[in-house]
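Anyone have tokens for Protein-methionine-sulfoxide reductase catalytic subunit MsrP? Sequence:
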Amino acid sequence: MPIHKRPSWALPYSAVTPERVFLNRRTFMAGLAIGTAGLCAPMSLSAAFRPDSLEDLNFSPAPDFSTDEEKTPFEDVVRYNNFYEFGTGKDDPVRYAHEMSVDPWSVVVDGECGKPGTYALEDLVKPHTLEERVYRLRCVEAWSMVIPWIGIPLADMLKRFEPTSRAKFVYFETLHEPDEMRGQRSLFSTIDWPYREGLRMDEAMNELSFMAVGLYGKTLPNQNGAPIRLVVPWKYGFKSIKSIVRIRFQEDQPATTWEMIAPQEYGFYANVNPEVDHPRWSQKRERRLPSGLLSPNWVETQKFNGYGEQVAHLYKGMDLRQYY
Ligand SMILES: Nc1nc2c(c(=O)[nH]1)N[C@H]1C(S)=C(S)[C@@H](COP(=O)(O)O)O[C@H]1N2
Ligand SMILES: [Mo]
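Reply: yep, here.
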């Protein structure tokens, strides 16, 4: 049996035949699970997560958009996560995200645009060449990672939907599927599901905004937001919404999950900023993973997470203490 099989959109366009376009990933994965039952995942990874089930992607490196800082090891990127749909513990996503089925997957596009509709994942991704971008990810909780993402510039994807001049914001929504997402079944959850995020249109169209479908050369693990998630590297991690099922163009600023929960602590803009502390902790530095008790690996937090050259102009004349 094949060891590596690629989703249709991972192949060069010339290699995509009509049959392959509809290649059923779930059927393939089921076959793989039986075929490799005798192999073990590395002991350091949860039994529920099988990195061998991830599929290789074709991509070209985008060095102009990538940091050459040391990458956070794969094991940390896929084991230490925030994905409240599966629980609030850092290891809940790696343990439970396999309960979410990601194939087939489609995204509803609506609102102020010329090409609304329900798009199959393949149709969103196929027209684009995948890029690899190594970005810093800075969580509002003061830890950070350096992750090699694979995906598509968000602007390139959004332009295909032909946003109208009334589109001032773009809104994103995560899958709402309590049967598959145990955090959504929890009686203690403070989140009004689905998880929601949004960007101002000029932020969405900035060259750094990225729609990721993979990391470390493979399709996204479920715990990292499979099959498609946003990556906005100059903003706190909670803006980088996972497992997206809706994209809506709108005139008004959308309500977003963390702002809805605690507006005095988390704003709509959420730009990384060491000068504006969180009400309950400092944002001046961050633990760069891997980080342990004996070697926490503190580093200085940079304004706009070090991406000021590309994005500072978006906020000219705005008081970043007011618009946090
Ligand atoms: N749907 C959804 N998206 C989400 C979250 C979440 O709980 N649910 N957590 C966010 C937060 S707080 C962070 S720091 C990043 C973490 O991404 P990672 O687990 O891939 O490192 O995902 C963001 N996207
Ligand atoms: Mo975060």
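Residues 82, 139-141, 237-238 surround molybdenum atom (ligand 2) (CB under 6 Å).
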